[in-house]
Specification:
Layout lengths: L29 H16 L11 H11 L4 H14 L3 H6 L2 H7 L6 H18 L14 H9 L6 H10 L11 H10 L8 H10 L7 H17 L18 H7 L15
Helix pairs in contact: 1-11, 2-3, 2-8, 5-6, 7-8, 9-11
Length: 269
Amino acid sequence: MPAKSRPRTRQPSPNLAFPDVRPDEPDGSTDARAIEVHHRLCREYGCPLGRFRDLDPLDELISALLSHRTHNRDSAQAFRTLRARFATWAEVRDASTADVEHAIAASTWPEQKAPRIQQVLRELTARCDGRLSLDFLRDLPVADARAWLESLPGVGPKTSAAVISFSTLRGKALPVDSHHHRVAARLGLIPEGMPVGPAHRVLEAQLPANWDAQQVYDNHQVIMRHGKTICTWRDPQCRRCVLLDLCPYGQARCQDRPEATHDPGQTLQ
């Protein structure tokens, strides 16, 4: 999409790393609205955003598996306890499942996650000639690295994107968590009822191909933060939202229209 000029009052501050694609106003296409959402939220939350941790790819994979349907604070506690209890991932692989389950008790469904983590570690051992490392993913194209990760048990698009983007790989991939998914659904960036898994490909395809890994990371982070602070699960603060004019659901709520009783952000994920 060609770049367009913007009114002087809408220019970003010079320290923000925005791409060249800058529509004056959303032109009705999903891609244009997705990019406008990014620009506005970057102004709101301040891009580029710093990385929140520096885990190697395997650590990030285990952390992501622990985070499924779990609050960040609880999954972080489970990960810390697991690392404190076992010196290496080989020890986790070879431990009794009960011991691993006890170590990750802070996470939800530890009785399911403990055997799954051990299964993943055993599969990695078999596939990687006995080495427990995912550092080789750095040498693969992102699409191939994600496909490799998603061939592991329990690893879907969200987990593969987290490993590529959040770990020290610092690759170009867009994770979509429940907050990101909710905001996208209310804005109409994804079809109503689309689950989180398929939403990854749809939302990533809306971003310009020339964006770098930092810009894609920022896109997830600002939408996720907006979902946590403004576009919340219950009682979203629509009147305070910088995206209100782009959001059919928010406008319906603010105008007390009947369709506001149907929240596309609360469909099953």
